[in-house]
Amino acid sequence: MDSPPTPLADALGALEQTQRDAVLAEPDTPLLISAGAGSGKTRVLNMRIAALLERHGVRAEQVLALTFTKKACGEMQERVARLCPQIAKHALTVKTFHSFCF
Prior knowledge:
Elements: H1 7-12, H2 17-24, H3 41-54, E1 64-67, H4 70-83, E2 93-96, H5 97-101
Parallel strand pairs: 1-2
Helix pairs in contact: 2-3, 3-4
């Protein structure tokens, strides 16, 4: 019997092919996500983190995500938690550049 689709699997269908390629790239593949405002960069980054956790077995403690604002930190943690509900959002390290360097 097939297992039910995960939130990540459901969300992958809404991506363009280049976005999907970035999300599903192998963990050791260097990526540069560059695009205009409102093009889905943050969604791709959140889904990339979820894919690393869910599909590649990366531990949440191994993830470091840096953003510019506190608001973006909270949103990123919430979005990844929705995509990967089995991962405790507090296990991810999501910080602003300033707080991480401090």
